[in-house]
């Protein structure tokens, strides 16, 4: 089999999951536009792609934990940045609050760490 045919075979084997991921990200975008004030909800798309990609062949529970952590972290970022702005001290506070809230809600280790990462990212892109 030539390298071009082999590459084509690999792509065809993954075409369905690739399209499924793109459609899920598109749905996440439109749901976020309908439900949240952000006109460009890129983090909803990122969370969707990360959850689907990270859980390929794994349990749905892992995907739900990933998404829960992203949503929690971004929610904390939006509220806190709106109240006190952004900067290095605010980022540290974002991490403490997002992780603490995830622990209080009995989140898994994945939810807790993803909440912190998403809070940091959200704090960077949330308008003051």
Topology of helices and strands:
Blueprint: H1 3-35, H2 42-54, H3 60-84, H4 88-104, H5 109-125
Helix pairs in contact: 1-2, 2-3, 3-4, 3-5, 4-5
Describe the structure.
It is a single chain. 82% of the residues lie in helices and 0% in strands. It is an all-alpha fold and 128 residues long. The longest helix is centred in the N-terminal third of the chain and has 33 residues, at 3-35. The protein is elongated. The model has no long low-confidence stretch (mean pLDDT 83).
* Straight-line distance between termini: 56 Å
Total DSSP E strands: 0
Radius of gyration: 17 Å
- Share of helix, binned: over 70%
Largest sheet: none
Poorly predicted ranges:
none
- Average pLDDT, rounded to a whole number, is 83
Helix/strand-derived category reads: mainly alpha
Number of helices: 5
Apparent shape: elongated
| Beta-strand residue fraction | under 5%
The run of helices and strands is HHHHH
């Amino acid at each position: 089999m030539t390298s071009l045919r082999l590459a084509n075979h690999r792509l065809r084997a993954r075409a369905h999951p690739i399209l499924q991921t793109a459609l899920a990200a598109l749905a996440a975008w439109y749901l976020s536009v309908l439900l949240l004030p952000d006109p460009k909800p890129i983090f909803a798309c990122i969370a969707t792609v990360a959850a689907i990609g990270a859980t390929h062949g794994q349990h749905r529970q892992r995907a739900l934990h990933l998404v829960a952590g992203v949503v929690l972290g971004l929610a904390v970022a939006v509220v806190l940045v709106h109240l006190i702005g952004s900067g290095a001290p605010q980022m540290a506070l974002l991490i403490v609050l997002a992780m603490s809230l995830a622990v209080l809600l009995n989140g898994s280790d994945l939810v807790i760490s993803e909440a912190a990462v998403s809070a940091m990212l959200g704090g960077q892109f949330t308008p003051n």
